Prior knowledge:
By secondary structure, this protein is an alpha+beta fold. The chain has helices at about 5-20, 40-45, 130, 145-155, 160-165, 175-185, 195-215, 220, 225, and strands at about 25-30, 50-55, 60-65, 70-75, 80-85, 95-100, 105-110, 115-120, 255, 260-265.
Amino acid sequence: MPELPEVEHAARTLRAWLAGAPIARARAAPTRIFRSGGRALFERRLAGARLERVDRRGKMLLLSFEGGVGLLCHLGMTGKWVRREGSGPVPPHSRARLELAGGAVLHYCDPRLFGRIEVHVGLDLLTLPSVRALGPDPLVDGIDPSALRDRLSRTGRAVKVALMDQAVIAGAGNIYATEALWHARIHPARPASSIRRGDAVRIARGLEASFAAALATPVEEIAYLSEGRGVDNPFLVYDRAGEPCPRCRRTIEKTTIGGRTSAFCPRCQRAP
DNA sequence: ACGGATGTTCGCGC
DNA sequence: CGCGCGAACATCCG
């Protein structure tokens, strides 16, 4: 459940779920979702907590509660929050749960345990080093093409690898880096250092377009990889190798860049 | 049955 | 120090 659009959806959903009732009880199994000592803090400090605000920075969810308790949650590759009535069945791979006054239960489910939850007391989550290390968030800060070009031009890595670097731009992963570069007509293996002002403008537009499209799409569809059967691929080029490019009809190809599969159109996105 | 999957982090070698 | 690469994490799906 991971890149910016899905995390933004999770933030909005959690905001609504936690708006009414305070947390009555917090429980979690001992898993590596929690770093050292985190589980005890989770169970002890979230009991009785009332939501103040939910923020998102890149792929990080930041839940702040009255009294200075903060919960940071990264969904990793397969994490998601699920709401159940207290009487309902426990969803698969529930790793932690927030029992709300009123009966609903919010489960953090994560089969592969790549996600993480941290509880912090007495500080602003936005000041955490892991949050401050993030680059600008496209929805919160917007994307400044000049700043993007400056950050890209300082590295010789492939532009797609650089776009997935959360310190460059917060929130893009394999799907949206792939989509944005197709929009921008830039080959994913091009050295980031070769990106010029005009390229950066098109990449910024490409990111905005692919994020906007995803935010306008039902979350079950953007999560089609995890939802599995029956959900159509909502993306233009991601996971579409062998199909025609939606712009020029040339067959989309795939290659491996930075260890990740990358789909691209060999005509629209010429090799470096 | 095998291979790959939306992410992050670590170790190793150059 | 930068960077590439592979592995690891644990599970599901086609």
